[in-house]
Amino acid sequence: MSNSPTPEGEDPADLLDRTNLAAYLSARKQLAAENSTLGLPTRPVLPGVLRTDETVSKAMELLSSLRVQAAPLVAMHADNQHYDAQAFISCGDLVLGFLERVNSTATATRDANVLDRMAALTAVGQAYSKTPLVEVRSRWDGTGVWSTATEDMSLADALRRCMHIGEEHRDEPGSPMLRQCPHRFAVIDASGMVVDIVAQSDLAMYLRRNTDLLDQTVMNATVQSMQLGAQGGRRVVSVNASTPVVDCFYEMERANVQAVAIIDENTDALVGNLSETDIMTLKSDAYGALALPVGEYLLHAHGITNPKVPDIVDRSLYNPDSTVFSAALANEGSKLVVTCEPTATIAEVMDAMHVKAVHRVWVVDDARRPIGVVALSDILAAIAVKKPSGGQGTSEGTIGKSTMHANVPTPTSQSSA
Predict the structure, then answer these.
(1) CA distance 171 to 387
(2) Would you place residue 349 in the very low, low, confident or very high pLDDT band (cuts 50, 70, 90)?
(3) What are phi and psi of 174, to 5 degrees?
(4) What are the backbone angles phi and psi of residue 231, rounded to the nearest 5°?
(5) Which of 203, 228, 235, 212 minimizes the C-alpha distance to 354?
(6) pLDDT (tens digit per residue) in 305-342
(7) Helix (H) or strand (E) holding 96
(8) Which segment of 40-44, 104-108, 275-279, 368-372 scores lowest on mean pLDDT?
(9) Measuring CA to CA, which residue among 122, 225, 127, 162 is closest to residue 25?
(10) Residue 179 above 80 pLDDT?
(11) Cα-based angle 324, 328, 329 (whole degrees, multiple of 5)
């Protein structure tokens, strides 16, 4: 007989497998309605959509107000009520569209002095803000499913078929293939209307909300033991705090990542984080700010108007030659960047993602140097996918079973797109 302990709880993949997608969506809407009557913040009844004839400025306004990373792009019919869903438009698409237009402007190159580059970026940004979304290239960071199909799908099916996590080469944490996985999918009814959006964060937070049902040996496994955040497929891309913001965005596109670690120039310690969503803070006439050093930009973006440099006794991790912006960012610590050590547990990382409403956590060493990064897709690939030895799950979960045994995640836990 085996002496190995019996897990006290079920595998996260099994929970997703027995939770019916249609039941999950129905219960989620019911909870949202209850929260609304109580005056609690909640997601809209219907997801926000963007029309192809609307502008980049409108897209940034909608994404920022809903605190989501993407929205469906639709072509309206003549009756102005019905539409055809085209794709998702995301923050990353808006960043890429801006960079493509900067490339055609000779005065906005890295060789230009800061003031000239600010003026050139402002001019490009003002024109770009008025650009119709039909002219912005989408990278299709999202898929769709008919609402009738959700009745026969489990959350495990949705993870695999709609988000492609669990497909070949996409079930290993840190795999470069996970970067290509859609972050969300839309649920479309018979009339073609988008009635729901489910994101990676929704599935991760569903597991977190039901952690008491799960095998605690999985949730208490460390980042290191699960091979999460290790340098390899999902390597850390870092830039100095003195790097202009626009060049940080160029580095994201070059490396095919959605965020870069901002490090101190002298110690390589992590002092900040810049992601594609940070472009959402810009007004149409403020694109010139992208010529600023990213350390300075982040202080302004986070409303830190009186940055303080740590006293010399508190600067054991920072060089006296560090820039004032790098030192000021370091002084803000956990307010601006979410980190963990390799010994952190899966549960602790998911808690940090929930509390800080982020999609990645940087793994740091004892000197706060970034040595890895854990994204939502890594966690889902690590704990929510049935491994070959255990066999693939089925989609036979029933509405009764899923709603009786599993709570529904709070709609406000994270953005749904």
Answers:
(1) 8
(2) very high
(3) 85, -5
(4) -65, 130
(5) 203
(6) 777 665 543 444 556 667 778 888 887 777 789 999 99
(7) helix 91-103
(8) 40-44
(9) 162
(10) no
(11) 120
385 CB-near residues (< 8 Å, 6+ apart): 13, 159, 160, 165, 166, 171
Q: How many CB atoms lie within 10 A of CB 48?
A: 16
| Distance (Å) of CA 195 to CA 31, 73, 76, 148, 151 | 16, 14, 16, 12, 15
Residue 66 neighbours by CB distance under 10 Å: 16
Instruction: Judge whether 12 and 207 are in contact, CB under 8 Å.
Output: yes
Q: What 3-state DSSP class applies to 358?
A: coil
Q: Please name the amino acid found at residue 189.
A: D
CB atoms near residue 4 (< 10 Å): 6
Alpha-carbon gap, residue 232 to 252, rounded angstroms:
17
Three-class SS of residue 183?
coil
Which candidate, 16, 1, 142, places its Cα nearest to that of 409?
Answer: 16
Taking the CB of residue 303, how many other CB atoms lie within 10 A of it?
A: 6
The CA radius of gyration of the chain, in Å to the nearest whole number, is: 22
Pairing between β-strand 238-240 and β-strand 194-199 as defined by DSSP bridges: unpaired
Beta partners for residue 197, in sequence order: 186
Q: What is the pLDDT of residue 344?
A: 96
Task: Name residue 140's amino acid.
Answer: W
d(CA 302, CA 183): 25
Question: For residue 371, how many other CB atoms are within 10 A of its CB?
Answer: 17
Mean pLDDT to the nearest integer, 277-285: 90
Pairing of strands 270-275, 339-340: unpaired
Q: How confident is the model at residue 405 (pLDDT cuts 50, 70, 90)?
A: very low
Token readout for 316 is: 């054991």
Between CA 331 and CA 127 the distance in angstroms is 37
Strands 238-240 and 370-375: unpaired
Angle at 152 between CA 148 and CA 158, to 5 degrees: 90
pTM here?
Answer: 0.85
Give 15-30 as a DSSP string: HHHTSBHHHHHHHHHH
pLDDT of residue 7: 55
